[in-house]
Specification:
By secondary structure, the protein is of the alpha/beta class. It has a single domain, classed as Alpha-Beta Barrel (TIM Barrel). It is built from nine helices and ten strands. The relative contact order is 0.14.
Length: 291
Amino acid sequence: MNNFCEICPRKCNANRNNKKGFCGAPKSLVVAHADLHFGEEPFISGTRGSGAIFFSHCNLKCVFCQNASLRDGKIGKEVSVEHLVEVMRRLEKKGAHNINFVSGMHYADVVIEALEKYKPKIPIVWNTNAYETVKMVKKLAKYVDVFLPDLKFFDPAVSSKFASCPNYFEVASKAIIEMRRQKPIDVFNEKGIMTSGVAIRHLVLPNYTTDSKKIIDFLSNNLPNTQLSLMSQYIPFDKAKNYSDINRKLKPIEYNAVLHHAQNIFNGKIFAQDFSSATEDYIPKWNTDEV
């Protein structure tokens, strides 16, 4: 990593040795949690769990983030590259279906350094908010087996309001198209676990079904035959209480409107999340002792 950080599209140009940029992360890795995780899609978590490694800090900082304590760096332990390798080995030995790097964009170069030292025999999942450069996607593709991006917002006014990121869709859509180019075929093993490919997530927000439908339209036109995970789990976490339009749970009629739109025009596989998922039960109990 260069001293002046341009690793993500914000290009803060901060010297992370002594000054923090938008994400708030130092140059060294900060990991908040590492354990078997069963809260992902069935084709990621399976029966034995995904070996999820949650990183602290974030380059997006959505106001409704369910992991706000991680986003803001309030939880986490600084670790070396060698220690990250040992964490991967431990999760692999525990029987994880994959190693799942969660929100690691701002540490991507250091994660790659760890994977240069040790590449697990199980798939590597890059679990991302998709706000990353095409250049970094190409670099990661050598090491990552499964890209698992969120495509969060379409309208610049919406992404600006909720993530201080007016160019989110412009950047994220290009990154996801590149992910698909790098991993053009989805492969599943005999247990139904994705071992290579791309799966796209989208969380439907209350009062913003039009934005969600525009995302579905984009995916239908540009990424056919792709796995789509349509999520209904929205809860007004964190600063969402300050925004009257998203300060409530999603209504079934809203989610169903987006789901039906997807079913009518999208020819990829759709994983529709059960509406009962809108609880806090799926959020891991953060424990840095496991790191």
